[in-house]
Specification:
Keywords: Kinase, Serine/threonine-protein kinase, Transferase. InterPro entries: Kinase-like_dom_sf, Meiotic_Drive_Suppr_Kinase. This protein has about 220 residues and is an alpha+beta fold. It folds into 2 domains: about 1-100, Phosphorylase Kinase, domain 1 (2-Layer Sandwich); about 105-210, Transferase(Phosphotransferase), domain 1, CATH 1.10.510. It has 6 helices and 10 strands. It has helices at about 1-20, 70-80, 110-115, 120-135, 170-180, 195-220; strands spanning about 20, 30-35, 40-45, 50-55, 55-65, 90-95, 95-100, 105, 150, 155. The strands form 3 sheets. Strands 3-4-5-7-6 form a 5-stranded antiparallel sheet, sandwiched between helices. The chain has a 3-stranded antiparallel sheet with strand order 8-9-10.
Length: about 220
């Protein structure tokens, strides 16, 4: 395993030099402009893009496209988390990239899109993983449907980049409320596939709801 990891790290360092990743808007995912073959893009978040190599299925490379100074925080978060079933692991890092354990599975967002059932145990396991993070002196932040995955029947949090942000974040609380009050009585009982364009409308609507709620809270305090 050590030899495989060392080989992958060399490939990751080469990828880091060639990959061009840009960010047009801080609220939208970064974009990959160019990267060498045979690397594939697994996904893009607001800060970074995640790459996989077909010859090394156990690891991924996460390369920051913006807010690159944030990588130091993510390294610290993984250091505090150590090994836990509810999270990935960081094996190596460079100036703007991390080598992480690859998690295979389906995000909650994609589960709804594909009509896959999300069992209550998944929600409970995510809660337990978040409690574990708090016990490690972290502040779970930005935990939502695209950052939570079902892997081998278990709940896993795949993005911890904001776990040092000491700011109240109600995304997971809101998602749980929607799960118990709405999902359990509808899509859980009668699974159907929901198109991405419908889900994206909900996602954008929720973003505006959060903005308006923050403005309302500030106004109340004043």
């Amino acid at each position: 395993m050590i030899e495989k990891l060392q080989e992958f790290i060399k490939l990751a360092e080469a990828l880091d030099k060639e990959a061009v990743i840009v960010s047009d808007d801080e609220f939208d995912p970064v974009k990959t402009i160019t990267y060498p073959k045979p690397w594939i893009v697994l996904g893009c978040g607001n800060y970074a893009a995640v790459f996989a190599h077909p010859d090394h299925m156990d690891y991924v490379v996460k390369i920051y496209g913006r807010a690159k100074e944030g990588i130091k925080d993510e390294i610290e978060v993984y250091s505090r988390l150590g090994r836990h079933r509810g999270y990935s692991q960081c094996y190596y890092y460079g100036e703007r990239f991390l080598v992480l354990k690859r998690i295979f599975g389906t995000t909650l967002f994609d589960c709804v899109h594909k009509g896959m059932k999300i069992e209550p145990t998944i929600i409970d396991e995510i809660d337990a993983a978040l409690d574990y993070a708090r016990q490690r002196g972290l502040y779970p932040h930005d935990v939502h449907g695209k950052n939570v995955m079902i892997s081998n029947g278990h709940g896993v949090i795949v993005d911890v980049s904001d776990f040092l942000v000491k700011e109240d974040c109600g995304k997971w609380k809101d998602l749980k409320a929607a799960y118990h009050k709405l999902y359990r009585h509808t899509l859980y009982r009668f699974p159907i596939k929901i198109p991405y364009n419908v889900l994206n409308v909900v996602r954008i609507g929720y973003r505006w709801y959060r903005k308006i709620s923050k403005i309302g809270k500030k106004g109340t305090k004043n």
